[in-house]
Design brief:
The protein has two helices and nine strands; from the N terminus they run H-E-E-E-E-E-E-E-E-H-E. With about 170 residues, it is an alpha+beta fold. The relative contact order is 0.16.
Length: about 170
């Protein structure tokens, strides 16, 4: 009877140990995947330029961000998949626009507080540069105050906006 009880105790410890190892392995794998996905994305990004061009052809608009906004404007991406776009008006007033973000393969999706989801294509991601594109029709209302000439474009769904950022 004692041998049976000892065997049962050993088996119980063995199985509980395996379950803990499995949970730790899954958690470790999830953390590794998150670190891989977020590699180079986390941090503070400074807008450098905005380019608007048709799917085929030359750029319709190419603007250095310094001519559109304030050099102190930044986009911050945090490890918990939240972020903020911090912009400064001409008087130096700070406006924070919080968002959540999600990255998968070649997409970086941004959900704003008004529940709009901006599905961008991740064109370039490195430790120092980030380039995204999105269809003009999705961000036209946001960009027209900065780039009024966008009103001239007729078929907005045939144009892409390219955003270039640096760390």
């Amino acid at each position: 009877m004692r041998n049976l009880l000892a065997s049962f105790t050993i088996l119980t410890l063995l199985f509980s140990s395996c379950a803990n190892d499995e949970a730790n392995t899954q958690e470790r794998a999830q953390n590794e995947w998150t670190n891989f996905i977020q590699k180079h994305l986390l941090g503070e990004w400074k807008p450098q330029s905005i380019t608007v061009r048709p799917l085929l052809g030359q750029a319709f608009v190419l603007k250095e961000y310094s001519s559109l906004g304030n050099d102190a404007d930044v986009v911050r991406l945090h490890k918990d998949y939240t972020g903020v776009f911090q912009s400064h008006d001409a008087l130096g007033q700070v406006k924070n626009i919080p968002f959540t973000w999600y990255h998968k393969l070649d997409e970086l999706d941004i959900q704003l507080q008004d529940d709009r989801v901006l599905k961008t294509i991740l064109l370039n991601k490195s430790s120092t540069e980030l380039e995204l594109s999105i269809n003009l029709a999705h961000v036209e209302a946001d960009l027209i105050p900065l780039i009024p000439e966008l009103k001239q474009i007729k078929d907005k769904e045939h144009y892409e906006v390219y955003f270039h950022f640096v760390k």
